[in-house]
Amino acid sequence: MDKFTDAVLFPGMGPARASELGRFLVIDPLARRLLGVAEQALGRSLLDPLAGTGEEYNEHTQIAFVLASLALAERAEREHGLVPIAVGGASFGERAAVVRAGALPVADLVRLVDAVACRERAYFETAHQDLVSQFIVRTPEPALGEILDGIGHELSGRFDDEVHLVTLHESDLDEFVRRVRAAGGYALTTMRPAAHARMLGGLRDRLAEEVFGGFGFADPILPIVSDQDGEPIRTGDGAASLLLESTVNAVRLPGLVHRFAEFGVGRVLVAGPDHLLHRLPGLTSAFTLLRADLRDTLKPRARPRLPEAVAA
User: Fold this and answer.
1) Is 180 within 8 Å of 61 (Cβ atoms)?
2) pTM to 2 decimal places
3) Which stretches of the chain score pLDDT less than 50?
4) Residue 298 pLDDT
5) Per-residue DSSP letters for 1-30?
6) Where in this chain does the record put each Malonyl-CoA-[acyl-carrier-protein] transacylase small domain (predicted)?
7) Which one, of 240, 242, 212, 241, lies nearest residue 226 by Cα?
8) What's the CA gap between 7 and 222, in Å, rounded?
């Protein structure tokens, strides 16, 4: 175990510029190969819609984000001799993790992401239009009780001791943000539509019925550590459930960090456009963190400050 101490962690999808993702998919040889697989799977161009998209959370940017993350991971592992013993993904990063672990081919994952995004768009056109998920940082968990007193909500993510994602009604958002700031915290990205909330059970059921039954997941070659409960996933059914249940289950990243440590992981590669993970004290204090991003060369990261903007 001491010899193999690497793991790969794929980030959630933050504010992503479609044009930047599109350029990377064209310029980078590994990404360009994945782009070809994706466009063949879709039966249409991926680059054309990316050229006319800003920072929208649509099927085109989602697919491009996954492809970029996988290409960055492949190069980093190859060039730096990394030998992962486990993989994981935070929120949207679960999708790339399932591919890297060998549970689903890239072509199938592309079709899955496309189908899920289309169903999500249709769902939120008529349901839960009043829900948002708000990232907050520098807000210790004990302070959340008082901040959220009297505000209907769900805790949709705990990424670190002071970094949380809260789902609530948009009519309560201004008051929530005011309380966070009054307590010394910061309110960052507001996610529309909302994510990782039990209130989205209707969407989860629709995805189970209309999408996931059409895909066959293999048993992963590498264990996928769940960002929902920290458990290692070793079956195809478990990999499918991880993606599906992410709709309604909160992200609990400290559980994943703890499991990596139990596995004896010493180095963690954060592979993909990342606005959050490489800044989390819980990760940076537990492992030697390496980063492979669109704009950064792979290098160890010291413990940094929290971000100005994040999203899942």
Assistant:
1) no
2) 0.92
3) 1-2, 297-299, 302-304, 307-309, 311
4) 40
5) --S--EEEEEPP--S--HHHHHHHHHHSHH
6) 136-191
7) 242
8) 10
